């Protein structure tokens, strides 16, 4: 009941485009755009090959920006599902994190195996 009351006061908005949507964090139009995106190879220093789940543009870019820079943690499940569904055919058993922020990279560099 409280969430229905809250929806009357402040209707849920898509985290990608800002349009009205149901209780999902992403509206149907944006979810469709993300679903239609295709994996894209790219060059990255130190790697033989790299593959992005989608080109970093449009709805995919807005989703990642909202997650990384807007603190919209509810989008993590949406992004993870998109990554898994696009890259699983290329890399079975894939577990792919988002590129880290500069602070996270510095932290990761400080971790050493025992």
Describe this protein's structure.
The chain has 114 residues and is mainly α. The chain has one domain (2-94). Helices cover 43% and strands 5% of the residues. It is built from 5 helices and 2 strands, in the order ααββααα. The protein has helices at residues 2-9, 28-36, 58-68, 75-87, 102-109, and strands at residues 40-42, 50-52. The protein is elongated, with a radius of gyration of 17 Å.
Keywords:
two-stranded antiparallel ribbon, 5% strand, 43% helix, 2 strands, 114 residues, mainly alpha, 5 helices
Helical proportion, percent range: 40-55%
Estimate the global geometry from the Cα principal axes.
elongated
Largest sheet: spatial strand order:
1-2
How far apart the termini lie comes to 51 Å
Mean pLDDT figure:
76
Which percent range describes the beta-strand content?
5-15%
**Number of helix segments?**
5
Which sheet architecture does the biggest sheet show? 2 strands, antiparallel
Task: Return the domain count.
Answer: 1
> Which structural class best describes the helix and strand composition?
mainly alpha
Radius of gyration: 17 Å
Contiguous uncertain segments of 5+ residues: 110-114
The succession of helices and strands, N to C, reads HHEEHHH
Q: How many strand elements? A: 2
Write the layout of secondary structure elements.
Elements: H1 2-9, H2 28-36, E1 40-42, E2 50-52, H3 58-68, H4 75-87, H5 102-109
Quick structural summary:
Helix content is 43%, strand content 5%. The chain has 114 residues and is mainly alpha-helical.
